[in-house]
Every structure is written in C-alpha cells, then in structure tokens.
C-alpha cells in the first residue's frame, strides 16, 4: 500500500462503525468524569490528543487515517482523536486503584495499562486499512492532499509526505505495526501519570491542561533515551530494544516496586470502558470483518492483549476481591 490515492477507491472497512463506537466511549467517559469531578481531565486529554495527531502528521507525516464520518483534517479522522480519551482515562482510573497514586510504580503501571488498552486497535488497524503507516520508500502517504505540512515537509505541497527520520523510526514492524508505535503508547501513559503526580493531581482546567497537554509529552519523549541507549550500546534493532526495555521495566516494577493492592470497594464502572472497547475489537477480529482479513497469529495476540487488559481492569474494579471482602474472610 503506497497511500490513499485520489485515483483509487478507498477501502473504508468499517471506519464509520469505528467512529460510532469511539463516540459512544467518549460519551460514557464524559459521564463518568462528570460524576467524579474530572471533566477538566477529559477535556485536557482531548486537546492533547488533537494536538498530537495534528503535530505528528503536519511535522513528520507519521501516518494517515482513512476518511471517516468527520475529519479534523486530511489523515486525521474522528476515531483517530477520540480513541485516546477513554483509554487514557480508563488507564489512569484503574491504575489508581491498583497502586498508590504517589508511588513510583503509578506512572509505570499506567504506561502498561494504556498500552494494553490501545494495542488491540493498533494491531488490527494496518490490516484493515483504517490508517496507513509511512511507506518504506518514496515517503508519500497521500496525494493529492489539502493538508499543510511544516518544516522540511513544507516544500512538498498538495501531498502528505514523511520525513526521513520518521521513515527510519517506523520502519521496523510487527504485524504491520511499528515497534515504536507500541512504545509510544507506553511512554505516553507514563508521561501523563508522572505529570499528574508532579502537579499533585490538579483539578482546575488550566493546571490540568498544562500538566497533560504540555508536560506529559515532554516526559514521554524522555523514554527515547533508554531505548536509543540500548540500540547504540548493544547494536540491536528497535524492535528488540523496545521488547527489552518494556520487559525490564515491567519485571522491575513487579519485583522491586510495591505489590498491587486490592481496591477498598467494588466499582464496576471502572470495567465498563475496557469491556466495551475490547469486546468490540474481539468481535471484529474473531467474527466480524476482521475474521477473514486478519492473520491467525495477529488474532491470537489481539486476544491475549484483550484478556490481559480486561482481567487487569476487572481486578481494579474489585470484581474478584476487595479489601473489605478479604478482611471478612480473614476474620
């Protein structure tokens, strides 16, 4: 696939269906946030998501989403922005019930929770043509295009081009997914949770926006340092470096960090967002349009990711045990 071309019929797959499911998840997220006094957090996540999407396309040409019911711009569909909001909000809410919000483990665990929430979507997207990653040669994602790019890419108007360093960064892929994209979700989750810690979990809109929209992307970018260090010092590929860093962080957190706690009380609303999201993507992969288009290996790993995410969120919701229930059993 060399890009979405005006001369060829676009494969929409079930993009309108994606827009609908993410619009539903967004509405549910807003309702939950309103009940908990966290509307400022949700709106800040939305603004951050929109800025990340636009900046990555306009400055780097990192990807191009298929047109949807509503597009923020060429290559930036409704679902490409809305998907951030329920997943980030859910990851933060669940992590806060598994470890102390002030602990060093909170940002790291949030990174893994966010990665688990989004990976099932990331795995299916390229094969379903919900979006395109940069071609390994040529550097043109979409032509013609009405979007305006900046920096070095501003010299190629009327098309969505990819910068050389982005092409190199996203070249190594697993099931068509760049290894760096998987790492990005982890780093973003860590950055958001760490920035909230630094700002003592603000409730005002301005402080939350500065925290989530400005500080968290900077903190997320810092995770490129250990990754590049592993690549350079050990002369390994980005894919292996990503796996090594993530596994090291995960097991270090489990072995050296505080043990996971059981929530004080059951709150099944914690499970609502991940259950709907993963339920939809598993139906899509196993029985829906993806059943005939996705590779069996990909469907297997998609299922594994969903099971991990749902069980982790079920634990956070108190579906299995709560502190109150455990105290009763020990008496």
Walk me through the structure.
By secondary structure, the protein is mainly alpha-helical. It has one domain. 63% of the residues lie in helices and 6% in strands. The protein has helices at residues 15-36, 39-60, 78-82, 84-98, 105-128, 164-169, 179-198, 205-221, 224-234, 238-256, 269-286, 296-317, 323-330; strands at residues 4-5, 64-65, 71-73, 76-77, 131-132, 140-143, 160-161, 173-174, 177-178. The strands form four sheets. The chain has a three-stranded mixed beta sheet with strand order 1-6-7. Strand 8 (173-174) and strand 9 (177-178) form a beta hairpin. Helix 5 runs antiparallel to helix 7 (179-198), helix 7 (179-198) packs across helix 8 (205-221) and helix 7 runs parallel beside helix 10. The longest helix is centred in the middle third of the chain and has 24 residues, at 105-128. It is globular, with a radius of gyration of 20 Å. The protein starts with a strand and ends with a helix.
Secondary-structure map:
Elements: E1 4-5, H1 15-36, H2 39-60, E2 64-65, E3 71-73, E4 76-77, H3 78-82, H4 84-98, H5 105-128, E5 131-132, E6 140-143, E7 160-161, H6 164-169, E8 173-174, E9 177-178, H7 179-198, H8 205-221, H9 224-234, H10 238-256, H11 269-286, H12 296-317, H13 323-330
Parallel strand pairs: 1-6
Antiparallel strand pairs: 2-5, 3-4, 6-7, 8-9
Helix pairs in contact: 1-4, 1-11, 2-4, 2-8, 4-5, 4-11, 4-12, 5-7, 5-11, 5-12, 7-8, 7-10, 9-10, 11-12
């Amino acid at each position: 696939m060399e890009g979405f071309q005006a001369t060829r019929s676009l494969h929409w797959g079930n993009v309108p269906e994606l827009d609908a499911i993410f619009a539903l998840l967004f509405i549910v997220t807003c309702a939950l946030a309103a009940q908990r006094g966290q509307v400022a957090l949700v709106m800040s996540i939305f603004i951050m998501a929109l800025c990340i999407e636009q900046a990555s396309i306009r400055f780097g040409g990192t990807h191009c989403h298929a047109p949807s019911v509503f597009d923020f711009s060429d290559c930036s569909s409704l679902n490409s922005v809305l998907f951030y909001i329920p997943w980030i909000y859910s990851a933060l809410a669940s992590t806060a019930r598994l470890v102390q919000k002030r602990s060093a483990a909170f940002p790291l665990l949030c990174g893994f929770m966010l990665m688990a929430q989004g990976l099932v979507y990331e795995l299916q997207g390229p094969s379903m043509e919900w979006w395109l990653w940069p071609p390994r040669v040529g550097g043109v994602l979409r032509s013609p295009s009405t979007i305006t790019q900046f920096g070095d890419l501003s010299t190629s108007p009327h098309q969505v081009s990819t910068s050389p360093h982005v092409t190199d960064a996203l070249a190594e892929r697993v099931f068509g997914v760049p290894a760096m994209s998987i790492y990005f979700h982890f780093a973003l989750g860590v950055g958001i949770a760490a920035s909230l810690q630094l700002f003592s979990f603000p409730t005002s809109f301005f402080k939350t926006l500065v925290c989530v929209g400005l500080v968290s992307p900077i903190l997320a970018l810092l995770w490129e340092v250990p990754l590049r260090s592993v690549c350079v010092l050990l002369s390994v590929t980005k894919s292996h470096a990503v796996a090594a860093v993530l596994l090291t962080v995960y097991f270090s957190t489990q072995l050296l960090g505080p043990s996971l706690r059981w929530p004080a009380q059951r709150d099944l609303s914690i499970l609502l967002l991940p259950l709907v999201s993963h339920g939809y993507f598993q139906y899509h992969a196993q029985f829906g349009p993806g059943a005939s288009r996705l590779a069996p290996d990909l469907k297997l790993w998609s299922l594994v990711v969903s099971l991990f995410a749902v069980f982790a969120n079920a634990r956070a919701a108190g579906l299995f045990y709560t502190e109150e229930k455990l105290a009763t059993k020990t008496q």
